[in-house]
Amino acid sequence: MTSLQVEKDQSGNAAAADGEGYHRGLGARQIQMIAIGGAIGTGLFLGAGKAISKAGPSLILAYAVAGLVIFFIMRALGELLMYRPVSGSFSEYAREFIGPFAGFVTGWTYWLFWVVTGITEVTAAATYMTYWWNIPQWISALAFTIILYGANLISVKLFGELEFWFSMVKVTAIIGMILICAGILTLGFSDAGDTASVTHLWADGGFFPKGIGGTLMTLQIVMFAFLAVELVGVTAGESKDPEKTLPKAINTVPWRIAVFYVGALIMILSVVPWTEFQPGVSPFVAAFEKMGLGIGAAIVNFVVLTAALSSCNSGMYSTGRMLRDLALNGQGPKLFTRLTASGTPLIGTTFSAALMLVGVWINYQWPGEAFEKVVSFATISGMWAWIMILVCHIRYRVKAERGELPASSFKAPGAPWTSAFALCFIGMVIMMMALDEGARVSLYGAPVWGVILGVAYQVLKGRASRDETVRS
């Protein structure tokens, strides 16, 4: 599908005009904080605990290398967005540069990613609640799902404002943690002051205490932490000035990763030896407890609770938009095209929130294993969007260089080689997942999901052909 075809009426099975029906209520500061906050969530605050126990200090290097790959992916997405900013984003580009079926698979898979991520985040939030109260995780998960669903019945402008302040809390907390750790290292206050030292980064078994293999096996956890940075692509149809706000947001990726991931881990692992961190426990909360700053641990636990709820809130936002894009292209039920007066895809959001209630059941059945069980599903479905971004970007570059398509105003440096490198890196991560018994279940599920999508697509295609025959 070309950019001209996108302007077709939705009565034909093509997407509506870019941003049609949505309210452009997201300003520059909101887009910036959504982009920053999208990368700061459960993967860093909770998942890093397990990753530290598996890789030790070398996890810092894993985050740095993976962060570079994420930057390549985001610059590829940025070039596509400046070529044509659309709310459907990844699935729209897949339709144009690969084919209708690719768009269908990408749209539904990205929707699945956010549904599963919503389950993951609400699971993490329920885990954090046990820090204060000994209540069943499923009760907290149910309450949070209902509350966040209610929050998504508001206008996009208010959604953006809420996400701005959610993200501000997360950013402030991490910067505060870094400053406190820096103070402990230089001034020696708190219970950890006498033992805090950067030598912890290599003293306990070296920088690679579990070997290079141990570091590689954490890559799926590391990549999961970065999932959602591409959310800025979904906001394209509701941004006030996408040509200016989106490139600025994307260009913040390097320093975001340097400060919030690499910087924070260097500080934490310098103050507290990596051997003292345990899977399933937030390293931020554990670090404050080791320092003897009990109130600090409670504050950080509140912050990470906010981070999880913020990410789940973003998930509910994106699922409704993705379902509407699919419906506008005749690849989903038409009822998902409906918008409220405030421009909210209410039916799609409601449908997605209802499925997120599966997380309540998971927390009821396996309260101690819920997070790990859903992380691998979220990782593989989220990475599919990255793969499509990179493939579409490479194909776009070829056509643009031939003069078949207009050049983007925001070219990715080093492309298309950087996109090819990122594809190879993602392939390596998938191979590592195949070797990990806990993560392998997602690879078993991927073919099943592919078969379901293949059958559904043929059914929709057959129905469209019959409708066309009746009309003629």
From TrEMBL:
It comes from the Bacteria. Pfam families: AA_permease. It comes from Streptomyces coeruleoprunus. The chain crosses the membrane at residues 33-52, 58-77, 97-117, 137-159, 171-192, 212-234, 255-275, 295-318, 339-362, 374-394, 415-435, 441-460. Residues 31-462 form the Amino acid permease/ SLC12A domain. The keyword Lipoprotein does not apply. Belongs to the amino acid-polyamine-organocation (APC) superfamily. Amino acid transporter (AAT) (TC 2.A.3.1) family. Keywords: Amino-acid transport, Cell membrane, Membrane, Transmembrane, Transmembrane helix, Transport. Its main location: membrane. The keyword Nuclease does not apply. This is Amino acid permease. It is a multi-pass membrane protein. It is found in: Cell membrane.
